[in-house]
Amino acid sequence: MYQKILPAGSEILISESTIDQAINDLAAELNSDYADKEVAFLTIMNGGMIFASALSTRLNIDMEMDYLQLSRYGKSKTGGQLVWKYQPEINLKNRHVILCDDIYDEGHTLEAAHNWCMKQGAQSTSSVVLVLKEHDRTYADYKPDYVALNIPDHYIFGYGMDLEEKLRQLPAIYYLPDA
Ligand SMILES: O=P(O)(O)OC[C@H]1O[C@H](OP(=O)(O)OP(=O)(O)O)[C@H](O)[C@@H]1O
Ligand SMILES: Nc1nc2[nH]cnc2c(=O)[nH]1
């Protein structure tokens, strides 16, 4: 169905059904860990939007939802300066924050978001990512608390992740083996 918009040579890295099952497993873990907590569920835009939508509809948790926006890649495949584009107004004081993002790559985005939430007075802040990319480059000191899937070192797109700001809407995760 997506042949018309997929770049030539694209291959599937993670299928829709694998993603769906991984999100179910993650939701079960969060439903247990946050059963008695008052939660602020914060999506990191733009990349986190599709994963956060799918995950949040499976959460049986007392929570408010909001988002923040941080960016360091833009149209590039390599990370640059981290730019805050939107900080939420929701009160995080004494709340248990769950940060939800699509990918942990070098970790600078989640580290900055985590530090900011703690500065706002959150009682705890944890992070949930759909994929963690394994590579030899330097990671930030911060590591995500919940990871659905580990992936090899490819630039990936689909399921919220962009290729030059497009193709976020793809329901599976793709890569270009020759890129
Ligand atoms: O672990 P890191 O190396 O910090 O990279 C991860 C971040 O990179 C992407 O965001 P991007 O800056 O591309 O903005 P976007 O969400 O608008 O695509 C992705 O959505 C993560 O938030
Ligand atoms: N779309 C996309 N964004 C990223 N941000 C950090 N790594 C990636 C990646 O592999 N794909």
TrEMBL record:
<feature type="domain" description="Phosphoribosyltransferase">
    <location>
        <begin position="19"/>
        <end position="164"/>
    </location>
</feature>
<dbReference type="InterPro" id="IPR029057">
    <property type="entry name" value="PRTase-like"/>
</dbReference>
<dbReference type="Pfam" id="PF00156">
    <property type="entry name" value="Pribosyltran"/>
</dbReference>
<dbReference type="GO" id="GO:0016757">
    <property type="term" value="F:glycosyltransferase activity"/>
</dbReference>
<dbReference type="InterPro" id="IPR050408">
    <property type="entry name" value="HGPRT"/>
</dbReference>
<protein>
    <submittedName>
        <fullName>Hypoxanthine-guanine phosphoribosyltransferase</fullName>
        <ecNumber>2.4.2.8</ecNumber>
    </submittedName>
</protein>
<dbReference type="InterPro" id="IPR000836">
    <property type="entry name" value="PRTase_dom"/>
</dbReference>
<keyword id="KW-0808">Transferase</keyword>
<keyword id="KW-0328">Glycosyltransferase</keyword>
